[in-house]
Amino acid sequence: EVQLVESGGGLVQAGGSLRLSCAASGFTFDDYAIGWFRQAPGKEREGVSCISSSDGSTYYADSVKGRFTISSDNAKNTVYLQMNSLKLEDTAVYYCAADFYGSCPIGYGYEYDYWGQGTQVTVSS
Fold first, then answer.
1. Tell me: the pLDDT tens digits for 90-116?
2. How far apart are CA 2 and CA 33, in angstroms?
């Protein structure tokens, strides 16, 4: 069974940090780009970051660039999203997703093949 399981979300004050994890199983991890997406209530899902399957290149939405860092531990089939300097606007459910030999589009995520269940991130004043 293909699984992507996010963890690490929670409640944090503005300016604080969280690290999200995405643990993958049931598919060949190295063949997929892994992206992070988020969705706030009443809003469209948006891309946050992605790490490429081809060369490990990383990509970020303008809204998080310089604050978030994506990384991968291939031996553990896990991708991380380190989130620093969190803002109220970062509050959302965060999802990881896998795209077969993906080019890491940072958009709505319709190109992605597999999705996790999401983890809630809430940033308070």
1. 999 999 999 998 889 889 999 999 999
2. 15
